[in-house]
UniProtKB/TrEMBL annotation:
It comes from Ligilactobacillus faecis. The keyword Metal-binding does not apply. Catalyzes the formation of N(4)-acetylcytidine (ac(4)C) at the wobble position of elongator tRNA(Met), using acetate and ATP as substrates. First activates an acetate ion to form acetyladenylate (Ac-AMP) and then transfers the acetyl group to tRNA to form ac(4)C34. HAMAP family: TmcAL. It is found in: Cytoplasm. This is tRNA(Met) cytidine acetate ligase. Its EC number is 6.3.4.-. Belongs to the TmcAL family. The gene is tmcAL. It holds the Pfam family HIGH_NTase1.
Length: 380
């Protein structure tokens, strides 16, 4: 049985995402679609603009049949580790075909993955980031740069697929109109998620041509969240934590904890997240890596918690359609990983503790319970 899959964040769901789903339906008519989606904190190290339930519903209203949440330990990660969890999760749910956007859909990502399988950046070069070093390594192996955000993520998916003996068939989809980092609204009907978030304060009517009806309704009723909403909590964590405590946080390395704490202490009361991020930036640490570290500090994400997830991966079911119910019934017989449908008191104190904590921190600004007593969304 063919099952299509997408690894996504939907921050928020817009017409570019709808176009992608339509391309899936065109390529594989009548094939169910499973989405593995980041929760309330995202791969590039930022809070989601809308909570996971709202974004899952947006996907279900626009063609998805199952939406599962990738746990925090899988999401706030470099591309390779994020991709590994996404591919592993979709394969466990019976997905056979992976669709993803790419700046260069003509690339043979699986062939590239084989070429760069043993490629590594140079950790010893302290005048550049590991990401820049790795980029040089893959350029040498492939013969040209693979440097655009979605192309790099596609390569990461391919490397993960190769590591799992290639359970998924790849379908790159050419990105339309808006670039990943584009922050202006164009004349067409597709704008980047970055542009939609940046222009949100102009009013939802300004965004109407770029987003489906469900997203439009959500924007009329909800405030979009960003790092600025959570920065006071991050500031408190850094100011109140000792260096020794910071050293237990996942991703902390090379003594960066001293700089993170010192620069926070030096900030004026009026400074925001971007100001602090620029203050702590070094050649060795990219802005994205620092943003992920900030998320890990905010959530008190410990190395031991991430290792525990890697040892026993799991997923959280956010919603499904009647077609999705059939997929879930089949997955019960073959899925090797736990699929959480409701979070119990016992869960939140054990394997689900990090995700529960992340939900509670997000709830400080969102004002809506994220885990306890929340049942999956059912679309009839």
């Amino acid at each position: 049985m063919q099952v299509a899959g997408i690894i996504a964040e939907y921050n928020p769901f817009h017409n570019g995402h709808l176009y992608q789903i339509k391309q899936v339906k065109r390529a594989l008519p009548n094939v169910p679609l499973v989405i593995a989606m980041s929760g309330n904190f995202l791969q590039r190290g930022e809070p989601a603009c809308l909570d996971k339930w709202t974004r899952a519903n947006q996907a279900l209203q626009n063609g998805a049949d199952v939406v599962v949440e990738l746990p925090v330990a899988a999401c706030v990660q470099p591309a390779d580790r994020f991709a590994r969890s996404g591919v592993r999760s979709l394969a466990a749910l019976g997905v056979t075909d992976l669709f993803f956007g790419a700046e260069h859909a003509e690339y043979d990502f699986m062939t590239y993955a084989k070429l760069v399988k043993e490629a590594h950046g140079d950790f010893k070069k302290y005048d550049e980031s590991y990401a820049a070093s790795f980029q040089r390594a893959i350029t040498t192996k492939i013969g040209h740069e693979v440097s655009q955000p979605n192309d790099l993520l596609g390569l990461a998916y391919a490397k993960a697929n190769l590591a799992f003996d290639s359970p998924l068939t790849f379908h790159p989809i050419q990105r339309k109109q808006a670039g990943y980092h584009e922050v202006t609204l164009g004349k067409g009907t597709i704008a980047s998620a970055s542009a939609i978030r940046k222009n949100y304060t102009q009013g939802e009517d300004k965004l109407a041509q770029y987003i489906p009806a469900q997203t439009f309704n959500d924007l009329r009723q909800k405030e979009l969240l960003s790092w600025d909403d959570f920065f006071p909590y991050l500031k408190y964590k850094l100011l109140s934590s000792s260096v020794a405590e910071l050293q237990t946080i996942y991703g902390m390395a090379e003594g960066i904890e001293y700089r993170l704490k010192d620069q926070m202490e030096r900030l004026t009361d009026q400074a925001d997240f971007e100001t602090w991020l620029k203050a702590v930036k070094t050649k060795r640490f990219t802005y994205t890596r620092l943003s992920r570290l900030a998320c890990a500090i905010l959530l008190e994400m410990k190395t031991a918690e991430v290792l525990a997830y890697e040892k026993v991966p799991y997923l959280r079911l956010l919603g499904f359609t009647p077609t999705g119910q059939n997929i879930l019934n089949k997955a019960k017989k073959s899925n090797p990983h736990p699929l959480v449908t409701k979070v119990s008191q016992d869960d939140k104190n054990n394997f689900f503790a990090l995700d529960y904590r992340a939900g509670k921190i997000y709830q400080l600004k969102n004002k809506t319970e994220q885990d306890l007593k929340r049942a999956p969304i059912r679309i009839s």
